[in-house]
Structures are given as C-alpha cells and as structure tokens.
Write a structure and sequence with these properties.
19% helix, 9-stranded mixed β-sheet, alpha+beta, 3 helices, Nucleoside Triphosphate Pyrophosphohydrolase, 154 residues
Length: 154
C-alpha cells in the first residue's frame, strides 16, 4: 500500500495535502505534454513525491516512469500554489497539491509510451498548445509559453 492509499484509509475522501514535481521538457522550442487518460487532459510529466524523496529525485523518477527520458540537468522553473491546486476526483477524493516545476536543460533517452497513465506524448509549440490543459497546470504551461525565464513563485 502506498502513502496516499494508506492516508485514505484514515481520512477517507477528505483533503489530502501533497507535493507534486513536474518537468518542462523542451525540444525545438516545443514543450512535451502527455495526454492523461484519467482526466482526459494534457499536462507535463510528473507526479507526487514519495516519503523521504527530494524534489529532484521525485521529478527524475516520475519523468522516467512516464516517458523513459532520463533527466540529466535541470533548474527550478517555478513553485505553484493557490486555489487552482485543489482537485476533487470523480471518486470524491480531494487533494491539494503544491507544484514544484523544473525546466529540463539536458536529458537522454528516447521518448517511450510508458505506464498506464498517459495515452499519448507529444511536443507542442507555444502557439499550438491544446485547449484541454490540466487546470492545475495551465498556469505554468502558459508561463512557459510566454517565455518566463526566472523562477516563479505563485
């Protein structure tokens, strides 16, 4: 049983606080997004930190698990919080997740469709972003699209 499942046995559907780590991966002035099957929207690779894990370890692990890409070099892009970080899933589980987002400067490996979470991975230019972005990630994807180049705290 993982941490979230264990906590759900204690709190049921009440709000669970988590920390998510995501990766902005660029190629030819485009951003890599994944089309999630559970929410039918587009987001960056990433996920929830595990107990005892650092931000860096979490973003590396999640990115590799979801894409097959190994992050070599990265920097902080932004820290995102606020009302948009709250979600209630169809099963009534509620989560509030602070998002630590990294911009990947160098990576190795080939993009592979991995894991059960995403149905597709695709690179998008800033002017061709899909309309159905994950609402909790829309802000930092749009910050990327407008060319933000200093760490953002929102």
């Amino acid at each position: 049983m993982n941490y979230i499942q264990q906590m759900r046995t204690y709190i049921g559907h009440d709000v669970l606080f988590t920390v998510g780590c995501g990766a902005i991966i660029e190629k030819d002035n485009s951003i890599l997004l994944q089309h999630r099957m559970d929410e039918d929207n587009w987001c960056v690779p990433g996920g929830v930190m595990e107990i005892g894990e650092s931000f860096e370890e979490a973003v590396k692990r999640e990115t590799f698990e979801e894409t097959g890409i190994e992050i070599i070099d990265f920097e902080l892009f932004g820290i995102y919080s606020g009302e948009k970080c709250f979600v209630e899933y169809p099963n009534k589980d509620q989560v509030y997740s602070v998002q630590i987002i990294f911009k990947v400067l160098n990576y190795k490996g080939e993009l592979k469709q991995q894991g059960p979470e995403a149905r597709e991975h695709r690179f998008f230019t800033s002017t061709e972003l899909p309309k159905n972005l994950n609402p909790r990630q829309q802000k930092f994807i749009q910050d990327w699209a407008r060319g933000a180049d200093i760490p953002i705290v929102d």
